[in-house]
Amino acid sequence: MPLLDSPFAQLDLIRQPEQQNEPLQAFDAADEYLLAYLAEQQPAAQTRVLVLNDSFGALAASLAGKVEVISSGDSFLALQALEKNLVRNGRPFDAVPALPASEAFTGPFDRVLIKVPKTLALLEEQLIRLQGQLAPGAQVIAAAMVKHLPRAAGDLLERYIGPVQASLAVKKARLLIATPDTRTPAVSPYPTRYWLDEPKIELLNHANVFCREGLDIGTRAFLPHLPKNLGTAQVADLGCGNGVLAIASALQNPEARYTLVDESYMAVQSAAENWRAALGEREAIIRAGDGLAGQEAQSLDVVLCNPPFHQQQVVGDFLAWRMFQQAREALVVGGALYIVGNRHLGYHSKLARLFRGVEQVAATPKFVILKARK
């Protein structure tokens, strides 16, 4: 894999989660462009730089020890990658303070470097949170590959920060440079809320939650077919999002015990708030994590999962396949994984390679609900 060579450092970087013969590198031309632009300004060691949405730590690890850098993002895997990449390049794992997106950052910041996220609602929330956190003379610089840079990103910078200048494209990457001006503080439109009819619950959704405006159609197909009569089973909602699968299951299974895990901090924050609203003080483990990577082997009876088929801009079944493997490890013999998936993704044959028996529980024209028994 090529090294990230910038005016600040030369780094050997890995992606998370790791996979053998990784076809993709852990940085892109937008990272290189941002670092080159900042280097031209010759920032002093005491310059406070906030890095947002640094996919695998490329920006923050490059700046560690050169300026006062803080990293914040909504991905557990991204913050894990930052720690691993710092160590991989001879720095302490905690050389850069890292904040989950569910926690507020505290300025003042002289420079803010933003990798434009796939979900523009996350960008909007981050820009609103920057109000009052910028030092005099600050700049906010957003970067993305041109093919992933919607016009709306510049509009959001203009609305919440100030006038925006777009750079020339370099190696198919572009910068949007915003100069803060004085404006009336905006009120965040997040979290959003919507109601379900069955079960009758209200769901709150922070900015980066998948389908925050309404229930996604896969989950809608899954809900009527959640397993019943679970008794005191240990149940995990893997990739829990706003927690709807676990909450609906828990309402039907008052004795069962639940673990909800997602790699999005905003999803975990939403799930925790929704669990409390629907189930009060009923105990549950709700955490950000790399799927079930930290789960004890043979500790679960049931896993519920609506697997993702992309990581940021990259589409594929690597994450889903990994989740299936994690579920198999964590389930007791005789335990079951229940999933919903698009018909065309062919999950039945993939699960059959890992599990003793796979059956179709239900189907719609677009989705299948499968049960895989260990």
From TrEMBL:
Keyword annotations: Cytoplasm, Methyltransferase, rRNA processing, S-adenosyl-L-methionine, Transferase
Pfam families in the cross-refs: MTS, RLMG_N
Major enzyme class: transferase
CDD domains linked to this entry: AdoMet_MTases (cd02440)
Location of the protein in the cell: Cytoplasm
Domain Methyltransferase small: 201-371
Gene Ontology MF annotations: 23S rRNA (guanine(1835)-N(2))-methyltransferase activity; nucleic acid binding
InterPro entries, alphabetized: DNA_methylase_N6_adenine_CS, RLMG, RlmG_N, RsmC/RlmG, SAM-dependent_MTases_sf, Small_mtfrase_dom
An example Gene Ontology CC term for this record: cytoplasm
Enzyme Commission number(s) from the entry: 2.1.1.174
Catalysed reactions, semicolon-separated: guanosine(1835) in 23S rRNA + S-adenosyl-L-methionine = N(2)-methylguanosine(1835) in 23S rRNA + S-adenosyl-L-homocysteine + H(+)
Main localization category: cytoplasm
Domain RlmG N-terminal: 2-181
Function: Specifically methylates the guanine in position 1835 (m2G1835) of 23S rRNA.
Family (UniProt): Belongs to the methyltransferase superfamily. RlmG family.
Classification via HAMAP family: 23SrRNA_methyltr_G
UniProt name for this protein: Ribosomal RNA large subunit methyltransferase G
Species name: Pseudomonas viciae
